[in-house]
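Archive entry. Fields below.
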Amino acid sequence: MTPQLPEEATKAAPLLELRGVAKHYGSGAHRAPVLEGISLAIGEGEFVAVVGFSGTGKTTLVNLLAGLSTPDAGEVLLRGEPMREPGPDRGVVFQSYALLPWLTVLENVRLAVDAVAGERHRGERELRTKEIVALVGLSHASDKHPRELSGGMRQRVALARALAQDPQILLLDEPLGALDALTRANLQRELAAIALRQRKTVVLVTNDIDEALLLSDRVIPLEPGAAPGEPARIRASFPVAIPRPRDRAALNHDIEFRKLRNELTSHLLALGARRRAGRPIAPPPLPPLEPRVPGQGLPRVVR
Amino acid sequence: MRVRDRVIHALEIGGLDLFVPFVRLATWDEPGEQLRQIGFALGVPALAFVGFVLAWAVVAGRLETSIGAVPGPTQVVAAARSLAEEHRAERDKQAAFEARMAEKKAAALSAGKAWKERRYSGRPTYLDQIATSLKTVFAGFLIASLVAIPLGILCGTSATAYAAMNPLIQLFRPVSPLAWLPIVMIVVSATYTSADPWFEKSFVSSAITVALCSLWPTLVNTAVGVAAIDKDHLNVARVLRLSFAARVRKIVIPAALPYIFTGLRLSLGVGWMVLIAAEMLAQNPGLGKFVWDMFQNGSSETLARIAVAVFTIGGIGFALDRCMIALQRMSSHDAAIA
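PREDICTED_STRUCTURE:
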């Protein structure tokens, strides 16, 4: 097993690139490094999955790729130019979905359509909005509010809103994390089909190895630091050389796929074991105990 | 059943939860439980009120003042009746006057003579005073809202603006209307010098004083509400590159609306309380002036009439608060229709 370096993985000029990026939260005694030395190049049309344990800075990585936050060191390049701000060409599906609760499904999607196609005729925009809602199979729930929807339906709305801005790049932050297994499998299939059909470049952040292998061209483990409090890094990359779209049932019998899954699983398990071994027996002084909401990163006090 | 649930929902939104058991009782839904709830929600307050009135009647008869005994409940009811009677009499006089004028005008015009309109110049009745007070408080409340909501949004979105405004807010928030009023009156007399003014000066002074005292709760609550907006929602705006105006209209205001309404409700309460004091001093024809006039002329009915004003002020304040609760519940997108 020889995991390739990320730089070697993409031959074409990268669409989106991280170069030696580092990010920390807080300052002084509360300084908490999250990511360090992250280099990653994503080619046009590529579907990249970043796999990591919870709390290793996956959301921070998505925010950097989206331009929602800026790195403390290194640079983020979009088409070779430094990225300065977020924009509609990078659609984000937030981990919390971030649907606006006072708007219906249609209105949530319309917000994105209007933002990117404001100069178009009103009827045209309306048509486009309905089209996108139909694409994710929610036409029957157009006039419902997010609170009236199931988790899977909310997820679809979030995806629809990201697609409505017709982005070149889709950034998905654990989009299926909160769903039951069946809904999850369904949405994985739809996501694969939409990404392929609309030729999107996709970065999927997940903690599910099978999901990553099923959907992506390349799986990149986000390696946690050797001890808690140390930043996460990217060292390896696992190309999945099986043509997309893939059939879940057929994959389970594919010898290549099973080998890859074993490799990836043992790689991640080794990382986890190293992290546990690196933990001192006496617990280090802890930061203030604040509830850590998934997707909201570090405790408020530290930030 | 659907109809019943809608009625119940409307009552709850309207802040009239009190009547929900009646609706349930009407449809024979756990009648015993409903009766118990009605007994608790209506019976206990009613008993307490009766107890208060009895205690009042007992105490009132024993307290002598320079202008007679403190009025008991019966005298106050009589005073309310006489105020209503005066109102009717005044309206009758006005109607008679206007009818007479109309006749004269017709006669003058048919005779080809010039005619000058004359307006009826009677005293404002108690109901007129209430109307003026309501107009003044709403004018002040409107000014306060127009100032406080934009400022609150600014303070909530910009930490710099908040840091700049915070000391001013803390400094001016506790200031009594009685301190503001003289300044406001002098400034208004100096600057509001139209030959044919839309509003009385006293009205403008009272309204501005109400605004100055009542804008703080809205300002602070709006700022807190805007600052508490889910960061992901703001990130949505950033990803879509919404303009500042679109961001405020589509995300900031709807998200902060429950907070804004909480602030508005508190502001209206403060405004109504402040208004009475402002009217007393500014001599704006309203409930405050009514109380002051009664105090000045010291007739045998003075205390009873002031007591009527006390109940009126309390009742209107209560009603305004209920209206604001209803608006507040309607604006809450999380809980309203769940």
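CURATOR_NOTE: Residues 1-10, 298-303 of chain A have pLDDT under 50 and may be disordered.
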